[in-house]
From TrEMBL:
<protein>
    <recommendedName>
        <fullName>inositol-phosphate phosphatase</fullName>
        <ecNumber>3.1.3.25</ecNumber>
    </recommendedName>
</protein>
<keyword id="KW-0460">Magnesium</keyword>
<dbReference type="Pfam" id="PF00459">
    <property type="entry name" value="Inositol_P"/>
</dbReference>
<keyword id="KW-0479">Metal-binding</keyword>
<keyword id="KW-0378">Hydrolase</keyword>
<dbReference type="InterPro" id="IPR000760">
    <property type="entry name" value="Inositol_monophosphatase-like"/>
</dbReference>
<dbReference type="InterPro" id="IPR020583">
    <property type="entry name" value="Inositol_monoP_metal-BS"/>
</dbReference>
<dbReference type="InterPro" id="IPR020550">
    <property type="entry name" value="Inositol_monophosphatase_CS"/>
</dbReference>
Length: 281
């Protein structure tokens, strides 16, 4: 628990490893036992045919909500499934209380289809600023962490995104067509131009990890749900990358962003992608 006079930074210095352990335990108990073993009754649809939720999502979020709240008494959890049940939960991001931002299974579609391209995302935010993040690709046994100002790490090894190789097309992962409106498709269409190589994204969390690893140049996303972006954006920042909205400002987890936005492995790439996106706005 956080001590009465302890700062968030001091809490993280003491308990960051405990958060990692909580994430691993939630995945071991609720997610991995259902991977490639989901029964039909364990999969539901939410807003549409591509918006899936499973028992693994619901139960892992419940477990994380309990365990993270116990680690940091007085904090609140903004989880994807809790917000789906009660949208008012999202408002906690705009308050003064420390907030755990949780996506229990990012890449549910992949999870349902037996693809290992999914992960669990947890971020800790305070007064609108993300201060730490945990990204766990359980089926791949990869764990990435970041604390603001202290770097990004994958399985204990420091991550450096670095600039793209000169002279080649920039690979940009974009919002998947199945999850975009016609208006959003039009906004992203500008990326199909010389010098860019857009492709549909998979799990947002794993795309951000790919940027931090220097394996992907940028993303361009048209939605702002904090649970999809908070953990990954800090990972990218701490690996040397950056993110920009259409107005040239950083993405805010509290919302109200000018969309689409981009995150990239270096500032020059972010500016280039953002400039292309502005041509369609």
């Amino acid at each position: 628990m956080i001590e009465e006079t302890e700062t968030i930074e001091e809490f993280l210095a003491r308990r960051s490893a405990d958060v990692e352990e909580a994430v691993r335990k939630a995945a071991a108990a609720e997610i991995l036992p259902r991977f490639r073993r989901l029964a039909a009754h364990e999969v539901d649809r939410k807003s549409g045919p591509h918006d899936l939720v499973t028992d693994a999502d619901r139960l892992a979020e419940l477990r994380l909500t309990e365990d993270l709240g116990a680690l940091l008494p007085g904090s609140v959890v903004v989880g994807e499934e809790a917000v789906h049940a009660d949208p008012a939960v999202y408002e906690a991001l705009r308050g003064d209380t420390p907030v755990w931002i949780v996506d229990p299974v990012d890449g549910t579609r992949q999870f349902v289809h037996g693809d290992d391209g999914f992960c669990t995302l947890v971020a800790l935010a305070h007064r609108g600023t993300v201060v730490a993040s945990w990204t766990y690709a359980a089926a791949r046994d990869e764990f990435a962490t970041a604390v603001r100002g202290q770097g990004a790490f994958l399985d204990g090894e420091r991550l450096f995104a670095g600039p793209p190789e000169p002279g080649r097309d920039l690979v940009v992962a974009t919002s998947h067509p199945d999850y975009t409106t016609d208006e959003q498709k039009r906004a992203l269409r500008a990326l199909w131009t010389d010098g860019l190589a857009p492709r549909a994204c998979g799990s947002a969390g794993l795309e951000y990890l790919a940027i931090a690893r220097g394996e992907l140049d940028a993303v361009a996303f048209s939605w702002e749900a904090a649970w999809d972006h908070a953990a990954g954006l800090l990972l990218v920042e701490e690996a040397g990358g950056t993110h920009l909205t259409l107005t040239g400002e950083p993405f805010r987890v509290t919302g109200g962003n000018a969309l689409p936005f981009t995150a990239a492995r270096d500032a020059a790439t972010a500016r280039r992608v953002a400039a292309v996106l502005r041509t369609a706005s």
